[in-house]
Each structure stands twice: as structure tokens, then as C-alpha cells.
Write a structure and sequence with these properties.
The chain has about 270 residues and is of the alpha+beta class. The chain has 8 helices and 11 strands. It folds into 2 domains: about 190 residues, Alpha-Beta Complex (Nucleoside Triphosphate Pyrophosphohydrolase); about 70 residues, no CATH class. Strands 1, 2, 3, 4, 5, 6 and 7 form a 7-stranded mixed β-sheet that branches.
Length: about 270
């Protein structure tokens, strides 16, 4: 029996840059139970207090992990920093925002993707990824608890540093997609297109003849026959079923590659 994925939400935070835009990444602690040492987008598991709205989960996690508040009204960096300090010390988020006359603004988040951890993992998440623009006047920073470092990079720069950043497969795939966007508006257009045809991406593991394994994405020709574990098949004509269809780990780097001409994993 495979572990049941836990609902989670993640924020792909963008800011304008000379080359179009940059994406914010946080490094998880090396001894973290999930993706330890990797640079990832801010995010985490849903809490009952989120009311079942994963956009609220995403906004809360962005505030906790990155110190960025998607609020109902403009708020300056000093106020955000003070509220976050109290939040990380244990103060309830709802009470803090009410005291400041603020509420979360989940409508500022745009759905981008849905990834589900492969069955073989002991800790699994059903994670929605949302796009958001950095609010004017705010500056993100790692929390020195769950995260220990941070980086801003264009999608192309992050991919070029994939090994040093220890980027996991969802980050590699999403950054590859975003690399085609020339502006924040173009990135949000990609999000709108994805939201029109949502489908979970649940990789399946398949052994490779020379050792190791591949992660097969739902449109890989070997997904149904060679992969193991839970599955979420995707029709071949689905709008998301494009590009390289599997991941392999080479030189400590996850690489998104095309399937070989045969339908086997090797």
C-alpha cells in the first residue's frame, strides 16, 4: 500500500528583471525529510486552518518561508517583517493579520501546475503550484528554520545552475516552461493556458538497463507499461503532453529527456 499524498501548495514568485523576470528559490535544510538540500519554490503542506483552499495554503507558506505577504492592501517591508517574526514565534496568522487590518489575497495567485510525488517515496504530496508577482516594496528572505539560503535567477540561469541548486524534477520542468516567457505577463499567460486544462503530473518509476531508474511523465510512451506505482495517465493529445517525457539523474542533476524510440525505459 503506497503512502497517501498530502495536499500541499507552492508559489512560483516572480519579479521584473532586465532579461524579463527572475524566479525566487529557497534552499531546504540538508537534513529535511523531503528534498533536503534542494533549492525549491516556497511552499508546504496544507493545514486545517487554511479552510480547504490551497491558494490560502500557498499564501500562508509564502509568508512563513519567504516573508512575502499577498495582502488585501499594500503593506511595507518593515510591517511584513515584524508580522513574520511574530508568526514564526508562534502567533496565529489570522490574529496577526486582523490586528494589522489585513487579510490574505489568494486571488493574486494563478494556478500553474499540479504534481504528485511518485509512489516509491515515503513522503508524498499532491502539490498545486501557483504563480505570483512580488508585491511592490517587499523583499523575500529565507526563514533560517525550514530554509537556509535563497536565490533569484532567470529560468535560464537557474537551469544552467541545476546541479549547484540541486533542482528537483518539478522545478526543472516548470523553469523550462517559463524560460519561453519573455515577461511576467507572458508567464501569467502560460498559467492561464495551464489552468484551462489542469491535469496532475504523477511520475512513475521505471528501472534502466544499466542501473538506476527513470521518472516517466504521464505522456511518456512507457508510462503505462514500464512504470510502477500509482498513475495518472494523460491522453496523448492533452495540451500539457508536450516536450521531453522523462527524468534521469546524471552527474547529480535531474535532466528532462525524450523517451527512446522503443517503449521500454531503457
Amino acid at each position: 500500500m503506497y503512502p497517501t499524498p498530502r495536499d500541499a501548495a507552492t508559489v512560483i514568485l516572480l519579479r521584473p528583471a532586465a532579461a524579463g523576470f527572475e524566479v525566487f528559490l529557497l534552499r531546504r535544510r540538508k537534513n529535511a525529510s523531503f528534498m533536503g538540500g534542494a533549492f525549491v519554490f516556497p511552499g508546504g503542506a496544507a493545514d486545517p486552518e487554511d479552510g480547504g483552499d490551497l491558494r490560502v495554503t500557498a499564501a500562508r507558506e509564502l509568508f512563513e518561508e519567504a516573508g512575502v505577504l499577498l495582502a488585501s492592501a499594500p503593506v511595507d517591508h518593515a510591517t511584513v517583517a515584524a508580522l513574520r517574526t511574530r508568526l514564526l514565534a508562534g502567533a496565529p496568522m489570522a490574529a496577526l493579520l486582523a490586528e494589522a487590518g489585513l487579510t490574505l489575497a489568494p486571488e493574486r495567485l494563478a494556478y500553474y501546475a499540479h504534481w504528485i510525488t511518485p509512489s516509491a517515496e515515503g513522503k508524498r504530496f499532491s502539490a498545486r503550484f501557483y504563480l505570483a508577482a512580488l508585491p511592490e516594496g517587499q523583499r523575500p528572505s529565507f526563514d533560517a528554520q525550514e530554509t537556509v539560503d535563497e536565490a533569484w535567477a532567470t529560468p535560464a540561469e537557474a537551469l544552467a545552475r541545476a546541479q549547484a541548486l540541486a533542482l528537483p524534477p518539478p522545478q526543472v520542468r516548470i523553469l523550462s516552461d517559463l524560460a519561453a516567457a519573455t515577461s511576467i505577463d507572458a508567464a501569467f499567460a502560460l498559467a492561464a493556458a495551464a489552468a484551462a486544462h489542469p491535469h496532475p503530473i504523477m511520475p512513475r518509476m521505471a528501472p534502466l538497463p544499466g542501473g538506476g531508474f527513470a521518472l516517466l511523465l504521464p505522456w511518456d510512451p512507457g508510462y503505462a507499461t514500464d512504470g510502477t506505482g500509482d498513475s495518472a495517465p494523460m491522453p496523448a493529445d492533452h495540451p500539457l503532453a508536450v516536450g521531453p517525457s522523462r527524468f534521469v539523474l546524471e552527474d547529480r542533476t535531474w535532466k528532462n529527456i525524450a523517451a527512446p524510440t522503443s517503449t521500454t525505459a531503457g
